[in-house]
């Protein structure tokens, strides 16, 4: 069954990536926002301050999207490769957020460069969950750069990876897991137990994509005049100290590639974290934030090419295996 479902997947991933590149996230009626609304509604029924309750909540929501994606994939496969292309393109466009990430990072760079402190603070929640009121320009620049780095993997590399391997179900399950992690996977008093399963599942799904992202950051570092060796050195030396097994890889790679130092005190709405230092350069400046956006775009493009090639290879191998 591998080859029929795989035919058309590579073209669908390419088309979905190009649509996202052209349009970015829709301003209204985004399906991911609908999922978030549904998850919040379900939480009113499922919430309890226990890991088991959170696991059930996560399982129901992820399982529902897996079943929906599998049904779409099977129906498209029965109708032919063109339908697989269309359904995969639609799912890819829905789950990708890389273009909007880069645009928001560029807007943040412009506001910091223009000394628009209120505007930069207003924009920061579009990138991350930190408390913008406590940040000056240097803090906003670091927060934005770290978010661009981490979300290059979360918003682009990881969904493309799972789309190449598992088609529409892989795309939808990944986005469900990542959205739930953002909603309930943090260590606030309400979610430290209830969100545990969502956070761990997201860690599992991001483990390989984060490391692929690190390799791509090193490979694309020259696009911004950065250092491939610096990216690999910072990854190897610093990533394991980060509290996230995945974010540390990408953030350290970006820091090393750009020659900056990330980490340090990080204020969220519910707590202050003292993050480890990533990279051994100077504190990031607005020019580094602009460079991180260019590096993110390059990594996303490389990830898209790799995903398309992988999907095409899976289809070709599947076709060979089915021949008598």
- Low-pLDDT stretches are none
Strands in their spatial order, largest beta sheet: 1-2
CA-based shape:
globular
User: Helical percent range?
Assistant: over 70%
Distance between the termini: 14 Å
Number of helices: 13
Q: What structural category characterises the helix and strand content?
A: mainly alpha
Largest sheet: 2 strands, antiparallel
Secondary structure: number of strands = 2
Query: From the alpha-carbon coordinates, what is the Rg to the nearest angstrom?
Result: 20 Å
- Order of helical and strand elements: HHHHHHHHHHHHEEH
What is the percentage of strand-forming residues? under 5%
Whole-number total of structural domains: 1
- Mean pLDDT figure: 93
Features of this protein?
13 helices, mainly alpha, single chain, 74% helix, 324 residues, 2 strands, two-stranded antiparallel sheet
Structure in words:
This protein has one domain. The protein is 74% helix and 4% strand. It has 13 helices and two strands; from the N terminus they run ααααααααααααββα. A two-stranded antiparallel ribbon has the order 1-2. A hairpin with a 4-residue loop joins strand 1 (262-267) and strand 2. Helix 10 (196-220) runs antiparallel to helix 11. The chain is globular and about 55 Å long. The mean pLDDT is 93.
């Amino acid at each position: 069954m591998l080859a029929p479902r795989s035919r058309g997947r590579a073209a669908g991933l390419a088309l979905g990536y190009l649509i996202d590149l052209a349009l970015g996230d829709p301003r209204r009626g985004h399906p991911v926002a609908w999922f978030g609304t549904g998850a919040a509604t379900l939480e009113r029924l499922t919430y309890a301050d226990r890991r088991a309750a959170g696991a059930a909540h996560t399982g129901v929501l992820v399982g529902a999207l897996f079943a929906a994606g599998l049904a779409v994939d099977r129906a498209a496969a029965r109708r032919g490769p063109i339908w697989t292309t269309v359904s995969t393109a639609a799912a890819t466009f829905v789950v990708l957020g890389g273009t909007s990430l880069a645009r928001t990072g560029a807007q943040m760079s412009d506001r910091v460069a223009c000394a628009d402190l209120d505007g930069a603070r207003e924009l920061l929640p579009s990138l991350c969950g930190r408390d913008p009121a406590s940040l000056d320009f240097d803090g906003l620049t670091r927060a934005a750069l770290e978010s661009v780095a981490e979300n290059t993997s979360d918003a682009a590399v990881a969904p493309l990876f799972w789309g190449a391997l598992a088609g529409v179900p892989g795309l939808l399950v990944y986005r469900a897991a990542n959205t739930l992690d953002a909603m309930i996977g943090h260590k606030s008093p309400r979610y430290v137990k209830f969100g545990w399963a969502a956070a761990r599942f997201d860690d599992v799904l991001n483990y390989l994509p984060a490391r692929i992202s690190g390799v791509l950051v090193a490979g694309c570092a020259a696009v911004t005049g950065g250092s491939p060796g610096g990216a690999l050195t910072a990854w190897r030396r610093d990533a394991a100290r980060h509290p996230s097994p995945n974010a540390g890889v990408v953030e350290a790679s970006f820091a090393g590639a750009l020659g900056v130092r990330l980490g340090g005190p990080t204020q969220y709405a519910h707590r202050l974290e003292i993050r480890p230092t990533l990279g051994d350069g100077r504190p990031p400046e607005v020019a580094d934030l602009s460079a991180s956006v260019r590096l993110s775009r390059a990594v996303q493009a490389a990830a898209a090419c790799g995903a398309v090639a992988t999907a095409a290879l899976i289809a070709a191998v599947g076709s060979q295996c089915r021949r008598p």
